[in-house]
From TrEMBL:
Belongs to the dihydrofolate reductase family. Pathway: Cofactor biosynthesis; tetrahydrofolate biosynthesis; 5,6,7,8-tetrahydrofolate from 7,8-dihydrofolate: step 1/1. This is dihydrofolate reductase. The keyword Oxidoreductase applies. InterPro entries: DHFR, DHFR-like_dom_sf, DHFR_dom. One of its GO terms (cellular component) is cytosol. Residues 13-177 form the DHFR domain. GO terms for molecular function: dihydrofolate reductase activity; NADP binding. GO terms for biological process: dihydrofolate metabolic process; folic acid metabolic process; one-carbon metabolic process; tetrahydrofolate biosynthetic process. Its EC number is 1.5.1.3. Keywords: NADP, One-carbon metabolism, Oxidoreductase.
Amino acid sequence: MPDASGPGGDAPRVHLVGAVAHDRVAGRSGDGMPWRAPEDLRRFRRLTDGHTVVMGSATWATLGRPLPRRRNVVLSRHPGEDAPPDEAGTGLRWATSLEDALADEDGEVFVIGGARPWASALDRASLVHLTELDLEIDGDVLFPVLDPADWVEHEVEETTIEVDGAPTGCRFVTYARRGGRPAE
């Protein structure tokens, strides 16, 4: 795997962030997350505020604008076609691969979706922050499987949060890579 050291020579610490219903469903193609969970969004903001977020072009399309107080990097095989006309001053950068996205980074980087960016970043990640909802939802965007041989629950908060206006069981879980180091 190519060295993704940032300008200071230090490799960024990669985190994955996501929310899933049963069966690892994280969304629907073209629609983003098929639920509204304000407490999960507050957790997402606390985790990512002030850091770099990396997302796929489909996730970018559902957001429609850069996330404030974060450096936003969008992965696209066709950045010229997908990019908005004016990126100046927006905190937005386009990259053609995860390695390209990480090349100028040396701090904390949060990969926020969708399925392909999560899958491509999983081997580089040291932490996964997952909101696990007790919810049955149809969807075709799936969060990658976390192999228990590689990942252990590091922090767990079991609670009930409001999802689409209804109380819903939830686990806020941070998984840590066993041994603490990403796969080489």
